[in-house]
Write a structure and sequence with these properties.
Blueprint: H1 6-10, H2 19-47
């Protein structure tokens, strides 16, 4: 394997999209989707008057 010089090492650029960035985007999308599901369920239960009493 060829050993790189300091100048060659400084010229190395990484990719534009990393695995961590994709993971954060997917987690954010899942979080927004879960909020929508919870909100939809709450609205449906209020509309159908199927709410558990707090007493």
């Amino acid at each position: 394997m060829k050993q790189l010089t300091d100048i060659e090492l400084q010229n190395i650029y990484g990719g534009a999209i990393s695995a961590n960035m994709i993971n954060y985007i997917v987690r954010g999308f899942d979080f927004i989707l879960e909020i929508g599901r919870s909100l939809g369920t709450a609205i449906r239960r209020i509309g159908e008057n199927k709410i558990c009493p707090l007493e």
